[in-house]
Amino acid sequence: MAKTTTKSAKKPAAKAATKPATKAVTKPAAKALKAKPAKKAAAKPAAKASAKKSAPKAKAKPAKAGKGGLKLSMLKPSVNNMSVRVFARAAGLDHFETDVWGVTRSPEYMARNPAHLTPMIEDKGLPRGVLWESCAIMQYLANKHGLEKFYPKAPAKRAMIDSAMFYLIGTLYPYVARATYPALNFPQYAGEVGHSDAHPDRKSEAQKAAAAAIAEPLEVFHSFFRNGKPFIGGKNPSIADIRLAATLEFLAVIDYALPEWARDYMAAMEKKLGKAYAEPAGDVRGYIAYVKSQATA
Ligand SMILES: N[C@@H](CCC(=O)N[C@@H](CS)C(=O)NCC(=O)O)C(=O)O
């Protein structure tokens, strides 16, 4: 059975968390969590996750990357990280998680990952030993372990999963980030209104415009990619579904009114994947509950 253990980074380096970021969980989020660090954000600790129900029947060989399996460096409040955390559990991969809150910009981390991003896996078979970008990680692990259930091999089917994921990262996610990051206390992307010295009213308008823009690409996932099927992957969730459902979790922070199909879809994802979904989702939801409680305090 696959095991997940979580190690916390030793004391999160305050220095690392104060450098300016373009698209990262850094200073403001760190500040929000400083009084009550990751503990608060983590509604349910990610220890001992198992994915017995949803583990694929055949072909999935446990990942071997040292004693505790595959090493996954992650940040609990992040849906980019949630995607890989859900996938690793659902696929039954033997892995362990290291919480790198506050250390992504440390010299040690950046020497391995100059993009200072999470999620990141470490695997000797990789040319540079590490891999970041949530979708690339899921693609790689699915390829490596023959997890066709999550990532079909047939070129045409696979192309649809890839298209859905690229569309998410390139089109939907930027809107979600612009709409939710201010409420999440995450830094905004450089060059955007939210990152500038603009008047708070202008920033609020920009945030609202981004939230309003979500509806169109969201509907594309429903009408085009799902096309009447329960999931983008068909009867079973694919890596594109994991990526989509995780992304939609962030919308709770702005009380975004999801269409009925999306609410049903997220419930179906959680039902199908069980604990593999619920546990990492609990960390994101815990963080959202925390920032919301701070906003109303
Ligand atoms: N497109 C990337 C986004 C990754 C990303 O933005 N990661 C953020 C957390 S949400 C991060 O690790 N930030 C830490 C830093 O930049 O120092 C993915 O899907 O993995």
Automatic annotation (TrEMBL):
Q: Per its UniProt record, what InterPro entries does this chain match?
A: Glutathione-S-Trfase_C-like (IPR010987), Glutathione-S-Trfase_C_sf (IPR036282), Glutathione_S-Trfase (IPR040079), Glutathione_S-Trfase_N (IPR004045), GST_C (IPR004046), Thioredoxin-like_sf (IPR036249)
What is the protein name stated in its UniProt record? Glutathione S-transferase domain protein
- Domain named GST C-terminal is located at 154-297
Alphabetical UniProt keywords: Transferase
PANTHER family, alphabetized: GLUTATHIONE S TRANSFERASE D10, ISOFORM A-RELATED
What is said about its interaction partners and assembly? Homodimer.
> What processes in GO biological process is this protein linked to?
glutathione metabolic process
Q: Where is the composition biased (Basic residues)?
A: 33-42, 50-64
Region described as Disordered: 1-66
What residue spans carry the Low complexity bias annotation?
A: 14-32
GO MF terms on file? glutathione transferase activity
- Domain named GST N-terminal is located at 68-149
Quote the PROSITE patterns the UniProt record gives: GST_CTER, GST_NTER
